[in-house]
Design goal:
Chain lengths: 178, 354
């Protein structure tokens, strides 16, 4: 199997961290993995995205011309990527701010109101991890334990409180989606 | 669990260099290799006796490396295509002076300032010496972040062994992407003290000098270098073969292009097409013998490069008229998908083997 995911949103929404935390969790589980951040003539306040490929074999190209999963955190990302997703793939939509819906009938759509869920937890900054809870649950590529271990290694040991709120955010996203 | 860490190519070069004992780095910023300069700025301080300098220009950086190398440091500089052009005078001087140094080129689209996207247009520059004069640089072409790390460590040993500049020829994509890496154990440095300038004391004065005005002495220096290059050609060729056993068409590609080729080959093999890959890991010395040997069994070759066609010349030189060589290229910063390359291979396969 080889699964490619594009994570996309505004700069500042933590989309690169979403991709990195997932890629590292996949590495912990022994998969081959590549993580490719978008780079180019980007502007401040512009869009950011990254591509993560996970496979049980060597990965030929880290680029996803047809991603299997698309995690979109804002409207422009949906417009940019919706035509590229593979048939039978799935969208993970930040329904708090994305007003449109994909014009595709051959894919699954999972809506996650990340802002509302994060607000209930009292911290708007954990919206990306809320989304990752839903993503990890539905894609079943890595276990919640591996993902949380990855998250912990990113946050570092000095920030116990940060890990706690992020763990809650992950669980809230995980439990939100059925 | 192993000690793998998920790390970007540019950082992996920096970490591997420090682990290999690099204690002098000078560079000047240019995308897409800035993360390497950034890594050295941050981490050279934890290397005992380490020096990081952000130089005022690429030319200054390579000349600082020349100075540090002659004073006995394991030294490295890095840049991307236009910056590497600027360093050529210094690389020629390193070769003439027989000084070890590692030069990293994370290629981007060109010619000129071009763009900042991954490309392979600097093959000629890297493998033909690049600067003026009769000289060669060893050129290593990694195809993954793990290989970037491994070859960076090897590059320092090769540079010392042959007292010659070694170039790591990567591209924007291998520099930017992250993959799991396990860093190897560095070997102890074996470099003869007699080549190091550290003050003559009461002994005879020593020189590192490439200005040789006498023609016969300059000629002898040239032949001396060539004898060394012949030894390198004998000993240091590296390549990988992939599914060449029963292949009827062989793809030849290096670096990131070789990875894309593997993806294409896997697709084609699934539909019964007998396609294999030869991946040069050293671009100079070029793995000519394996290509020649392969041509005894298989006479169809397709060279794939992210350029308009440069390595294809070396393939033709290796074949000396044997076999048939075709080409597929995407220059200018375009990275084709394995699916796209597979289509090009199918066309060639059907045209010549149907």
């Amino acid at each position: 199997m080889q699964i490619k995911t594009v994570f996309a949103g505004f700069g500042g929404q933590g989309v690169l961290m979403m991709g990195y935390s997932f890629a590292q969790a996949a590495m912990f589980e022994g998969f081959h993995v590549t993580y490719l951040p978008s780079y180019g003539v980007e502007v401040r306040g512009g869009t950011a995205n990254c591509t993560v490929a996970v496979s049980n074999e060597e990965i030929a190209s880290p680029v996803a011309s047809q991603p299997d999963y698309l995690v979109v955190m804002n409207n422009p990302s949906l417009l940019t990527f919706q035509t590229r997703i593979a048939p039978g793939g799935a969208f993970f939509l930040n329904s708090s701010i994305i007003t449109g819906r994909p014009k595709r009938s051959d894919v699954d759509i999972w809506e996650v109101p990340t802002a509302e869920i994060a607000a209930e937890l009292g911290n708007p900054r954990v919206q990306n991890v809320v989304m990752m809870g839903a993503y990890v649950k539905m894609t079943r590529m890595v276990s919640p334990e591996s993902y949380l271990k990855s998250l912990k290694s990113i946050l570092g040991s000095k920030k116990k409180a940060a890990m706690e709120i992020n763990r809650k955010a992950f669980e809230a996203g995980f439990n939100h989606i059925e | 669990m192993s000690d793998k860490i998920l790390i970007a190519g540019n950082w992996a070069i920096g970490e591997a260099a420090i682990r290999a004992g690099c204690r002098f780095y000078a560079g000047y910023p240019i995308t897409p290799q800035n993360e390497l300069t950034e890594y050295m700025a941050e981490n050279m301080r934890r290397a005992q006796g380490g020096t990081f300098i952000q130089a005022e220009s690429e030319i200054a950086a390579v000349n600082m490396v020349l100075g540090a190398s002659s004073a006995g440091a394991r030294a490295m500089t890095s840049s991307s295509s236009p910056g590497i052009s600027l360093k050529q005078e210094g690389i020629s001087a390193l070769a003439a002076d027989e000084l070890p140094a590692v030069i990293v080129n994370m290629m981007r689209g060109g010619p000129g300032l071009g763009n900042i996207l991954p490309s392979q247009g600097d093959y000629f520059q890297a493998t033909r010496g690049g600067g003026h004069g009769d000289y060669r640089t060893l050129v290593l072409a990694p195809a993954s972040v793990q290989e970037l790390a491994d070859l960076t460590m090897d590059a320092f040993d090769l540079a010392d062994k042959y007292r010659n500049p070694v170039m790591i020829l990567g591209d924007g994509m291998t520099g930017q992407m992250m993959e799991p890496v396990e860093f190897g154990k560095p070997r102890p440095r074996r470099y003869n003290e007699k080549y190091i300038l550290k003050g003559a004391g009461d002994g005879k004065s020593k020189f590192v000098r490439a200005l040789i005005l006498d023609a016969l002495r300059m000629e002898e220096h040239n032949w001396k270098l060539v004898r060394k290059y012949r030894v390198i050609e004998q000993n240091e060729v590296r390549f990988e073969t992939y599914k060449t056993g029963n292949a009827r068409l062989i793809i030849i590609a290096y670096g990131i292009a070789a990875r894309i080729a593997k993806g294409a080959i896997n697709r084609l093999r699934d539909s019964g097409m007998k396609v294999g890959l030869i991946r040069p890991i050293t671009l100079w010395p070029f793995p000519a013998q394996i290509i020649r040997d392969t041509a005894e069994r298989i006479d169809r070759f397709l060279v794939f490069e992210m350029s308009t066609g440069q390595m294809i010349d070396d393939v033709k030189l290796a074949l000396e008229g044997r076999g048939h060589v075709s080409f597929y290229g995407r220059p200018g910063g375009v990275v084709p998908t394995p699916a796209e390359l597979a289509k090009a291979i199918i066309q060639e396969y059907r045209r010549v083997l149907a």
